[in-house]
């Protein structure tokens, strides 16, 4: 397969069976039990992007309907169609008719349903209740608190988690072997660092890196993803803690300019690396607390360079 087609990669490595879904063992086991009994309730999948919510929904449809799954499965993205009309027309029209070639109800998959307006959610609630005999709903969202309680009470709620380092490394190793890409352990670790457990982003970064060179190194991954190397961030933090403010400031500015990073990118990486430092726990907690304060100031519109300098200065005062 050509490395030039990211879409082909995504489709090729999208799981089609429950056993192929990575990182969501507890959720998969419970959903598999529903499917095996042929008695699945409405489902609500909640969690960050790129961790398998849509993929598991497609697996459910394929397991239930086999080759006829496309005719019995409706997928719509609520971030594109978030008004009440999509529920009253598109969803309702699909849900009111029986499935083809099976006794099991059709499946309506609503992605990013936390983007639906409150009015659309109220209409959806009623539709879920009225057509439960002919359709089951699978709702996917990043923030379940934005879903109204009447919908949540009608669903079995499953919380998805970002994939851990072992799962990302195993999956990236499998893809690399299939595509003829050389990928060492350091590169796998780098893919986990830049993706944060997001499989979609990990595949995207590996695809982009392999287009540059079939031998993918950690340095290439960090460059492609515009991600500062963790060791460089650690160096900056230790300089700041040791009172070398000028050196820490200059090093941080170099990292930002060389990698094209914004202040928000830097504060997130600093917060993540601060938690990994081998220092006194009380100092570590104060550092993370200060990161939260600086991040809030940036969101409010403060100058990012001044705020990052203030952050480094505060680290020096701590010790």
Describe the structure.
This protein is an alpha/beta fold and 319 residues long. It folds into three domains: 24-159, Rossmann fold, CATH 3.40.50; 165-224, Helicase, Ruva Protein, domain 3, CATH 1.10.8.60; 230-318, Up-down Bundle (Zinc Finger, Delta Prime, domain 3), CATH 1.20.272.10. It is 57% helix and 10% strand. The chain contains 15 helices and seven strands. The strands form two sheets. The protein has a five-stranded parallel beta sheet, with helices on both faces. A two-stranded parallel sheet has the order 6-7. Helix 2 (25-37) packs parallel to helix 3 (53-65), helix 4 packs parallel to helix 5 (118-130) and helix 13 packs parallel to helix 15 (304-318). It is globular. The relative contact order is 0.10. The model has no long low-confidence stretch (mean pLDDT 87).
Total of domains:
3
CATH class of the largest domain: Alpha Beta
Helix content: 55-70%
Question: What share of the residues does DSSP label as strand, in percent?
Answer: 5-15%
SS element count, helices = 15
Order of helices and strands: HHEHEHEHEHEHEHHEHHHHHH
Mean pLDDT: 87
Return residue spans where pLDDT drops below 50 for at least 5 consecutive residues: none
- Biggest sheet strand line-up: 2-3-4-1-5
Task: Please summarize the sheet with the most strands.
Answer: 5 strands, parallel
SSE class: alpha/beta
Reported by name, the CATH topology of the largest domain is Rossmann fold
CATH architectural arrangement of the largest domain: 3-Layer(aba) Sandwich
Principal-axis shape equals globular
Q: Roughly how many Å is the radius of gyration? A: 23 Å
Distance from first to last alpha carbon: 54 Å
């Amino acid at each position: 397969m050509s490395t030039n087609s990211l879409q082909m990669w995504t489709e090729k490595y999208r799981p089609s069976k429950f056993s192929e879904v990575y990182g969501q063992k507890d959720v998969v086991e419970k959903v598999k039990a529903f499917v095996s009994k042929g008695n699945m309730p409405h489902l609500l999948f909640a969690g960050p992007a790129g961790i398998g919510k849509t993929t598991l929904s497609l697996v459910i449809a394929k397991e239930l309907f086999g080759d006829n799954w496309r005719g019995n499965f409706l997928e719509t993205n609520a971030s594109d169609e978030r008004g009440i009309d999509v529920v009253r027309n598109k969803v309702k029209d699909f849900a009111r008719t029986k499935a083809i070639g099976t006794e099991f109800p059709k499946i309506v998959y609503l992605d990013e349903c936390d983007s639906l307006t409150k009015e659309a959610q109220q209409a959806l609630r009623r539709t879920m209740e009225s057509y439960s005999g002919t359709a089951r709903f699978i709702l996917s969202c990043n923030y379940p608190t934005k879903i109204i309680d009447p919908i949540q009470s009608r669903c079995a709620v499953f919380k998805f988690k970002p994939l851990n380092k072992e799962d990302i490394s195993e999956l990236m190793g499998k893809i690399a072997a299939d595509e003829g890409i050389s990928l060492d352990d350091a590169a796998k670790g780098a893919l986990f660092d830049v993706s944060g457990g997001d499989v979609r982003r990990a595949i995207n970064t590996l695809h982009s890196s392999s287009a540059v060179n079939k031998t993918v190194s950690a340095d290439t991954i960090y460059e492609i993803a515009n991600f500062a190397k963790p060791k460089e961030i650690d160096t900056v933090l230790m300089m700041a803690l040791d009172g070398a403010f000028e050196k820490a400031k200059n090093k941080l500015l170099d990292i930002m300019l060389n990698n094209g990073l914004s202040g928000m990118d830097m504060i997130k990486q600093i917060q993540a690396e601060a938690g990994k430092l081998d220092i006194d726990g009380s100092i570590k907690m104060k550092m993370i607390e200060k990161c939260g304060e600086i991040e809030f100031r940036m969101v409010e519109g403060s100058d990012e360079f001044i705020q990052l300098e203030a952050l480094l200065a505060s680290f020096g005062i701590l010790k």
